[in-house]
Amino acid sequence: MKRIVMPILLCLLTMPLFGRVYLVSVGIADYPGSENDLRVSGEDAKTISKIFLATKNASVQTLTNENATQGGMLSAMHTLFTEAGNDDTILLYFSGHGTEGALVCYDGLLSYGHISKMLNGYQAKQKIIIVDACYAGKMRTSKQHSSDYNDQSVMFFLSSRTNEESKESPFKNSLFTIFLERGLRGGADLDRNRIITARELYDFVHNGVVEVSNGKQHPVMWGKFNNNMTVIKW
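Now predict its structure.
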């Protein structure tokens, strides 16, 4: 019996820990007025929430449309992310309008620098920011550098390059989030170990979006993290 049990215990002790996921999922389709409205961003946020809730290992708060104000987003992040421990993951997902250096909330702008500074204050060593917005790649040019996070793993997954629009689709989700959902539900799990790593997710989503958009949209992944970092256990 010892010859079987001991190697298994040793393997478990050397595996990287992956605790609970704390997700704030935001989607804004209905902006004040009508000229800036989108079609699917609210559904995008609900879709990502459902994926993580299905794992039974996530605490999730979803904000859509008029509830996704600057104050509402900051309050939700602070309340939920404060609960995360050292081995947990905090994740911010946003679908909506983007502008240079900021996300467009229901009632104004939330700068990338503010988000980065805020995330730096939480205990979780693994932090993920996923943005599905036009010109999302501009988040890579913010003044907050990955080295500012010390020993934390920080991953930005952005739906498009700096000068690209992020496409909606005729379906219930945007192009980027369609492939993000498929990837997180197992499509990106090439080795079939039921763990989706950062590299697996990037390859799956990037390749799918580039192909379907005919090379007009290129998701980018950036930050300070290991390619084998676990994003989700599905």
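The longest helix spans residues 198-212.
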